[in-house]
Amino acid sequence: MHPTLLTLFPAALRSVLERIAGEAVQTLEEIRIRENRPLEIGYGSRSAFVRPDGSLTDDYRSAFTPDKEECRAFLERVTNHSLYAVEEELRRGYVTVPGGHRIGLAGRTVLDKGSVAHLRDIAGFNVRIARARVGFGAQVLPGLLDLQARTIRHTLIVSPPQQGKTTLIRDLARCISAGEWHHPRALGWRGRKVGIVDERSEIAACERGVPTFDLGPRCDVLDACPKAEGVMMMVRSLSPEVIAVDEIGRPEDAAALNEAIHAGVRVLATAHAASIADVFARPVLAQLAADGVFGAYVLLSRSGGQVEHRIVSAEEAAMEAAGRTRMRVGAVPRDAPLPVVTQPAPVTVKTRPMPAIRSPDSRALGDEDHA
């Protein structure tokens, strides 16, 4: 575990976590801290409770149990001793700490006119460990290329939570920025200018505006910026050729992405969904799909501790959506076997032409760069 993250934990809790060894510490993904309840971790495709000596067990009765004072001390460190400084994040139910690690919070909500205004009596924490997987994008990027335009197709990455969406979009941004296309027909292509709107500070993990993850040489980041506003700021002032955003789903997100697309910018986004059927079942995503916005979908799943991916074209996605009644299986536990699905009957799909890339430096080299 990263030393900076360890310093956030109070002494007793840190002592237990430092004793975790072997595969668990190497593949650690989640630390679940619940007041007066057993300490739990998630690693690989498994979970376990943690004893006071750092050993793992399935018996929750023998696990280390953080008390009220330890949870209060952890909250103080996470918020830098000021709940008011992170009030907006508390309203959304999480705090992002240096390194891009997101800490989900559980407690009592305070409502204002029916909407969540604040979170108090916080007694539960889910520490999600951010990790860079350099090379993850190399497995996926070749299937996303628009070979004629020398860039990517508009792409939506979908999966249930904690399947690797953020990790993948981070490495895809790095590959695109660095010009590492991993395709024999892309030899000699330059990297594209990538703009990342990092609303949750997870993709880039910026510290004082500087990314701590490797995002390549041609990448700009708007940190802690709402997606819809950030996309428009990027288009107006930073001339990106590709915009990357995490976890879209609101109407304003869709409107901003459409604006970017009409400005000649390619879009790389993620969303929560267990299947293509779920994409078409979410109103905002369904409208984007029906409008032919995305040229490719990447579906992520985990099996046996390994992340697997499947790339689906817009036409194939529409075919799956047409058969969603019999293909829909919903989200399943990560350690469950993958379901077997059958291919639905073909249907007609609406397609959308790709706008040309508007790149000042490529125009200076002549039209042959866009051949």
TrEMBL record:
Q: Entry's Pfam families?
A: Spore_III_AA
Region annotation Disordered: where it falls in the sequence: 351-371
The gene behind this protein is spoIIIAA
> Where do Basic and acidic residues bias regions lie?
360-371
Q: Which UniProt keywords apply?
A: ATP-binding, Nucleotide-binding
Taxonomically, what lineage is the organism?
Bacteria, Bacillati, Bacillota, Bacilli, Bacillales
The identity of this protein, by name, is Stage III sporulation protein AA
What is the originating organism of this protein?
Cohnella yongneupensis
Please report the stretch or stretches of sequence annotated as the AAA+ ATPase domain.
151-300
